[in-house]
Specification:
Blueprint lengths: L7 H32 L3 H21 L7 H10 L13 H14 L4 E2 L2 E2 L4
Antiparallel strand pairs: 1-2
């Protein structure tokens, strides 16, 4: 999608932010799974948990795409979902920050990243 050059320091920042968001989401899924399993009392309820887990796994696999060509969009979505903050992305270059800001702005018109507010047009 995007043909960007990523410096070694940007790659480290991106990997750290990506892994942090994924870890946070997976921990939440584990917690919710435990809660759901504790409520299971029938076989149908067990299969409902399995179906939910399968759906969540597919969603995670689709959302967490670490190809550098799509990372700005991935980060924009993760910021929208509040799994990443602006501070988590400090260290990325201005062209990447701008792409993330634009992607985030699609979801939130008043979005800002690295202290730059998006203007209403």
């Amino acid at each position: 999608m995007f043909d960007l050059h990523w410096s070694e320091s940007e790659k480290k920042t991106a990997r750290r932010a990506f892994d942090q968001a994924l870890d946070s989401e997976l921990k939440a899924i584990i917690q919710e799974t435990k809660e759901r399993v504790n409520q299971v009392s029938t076989l149908d309820e067990l299969w409902d948990v399995e179906e939910w887990l399968t759906k969540r796994r597919k969603e995670i696999n689709e959302e967490y795409d670490y190809r550098y060509s799509v990372l700005p969009l991935v980060f924009a979505k993760l910021m929208y979902r509040r799994l990443l903050s602006e501070d988590d992305l400090k260290g990325l270059g201005p062209e990447k920050v701008e792409l993330i800001r634009r992607g985030f702005g699609v979801h939130r018109p008043e979005a800002s990243i690295h202290g730059r507010a998006r203007r209403k047009t």
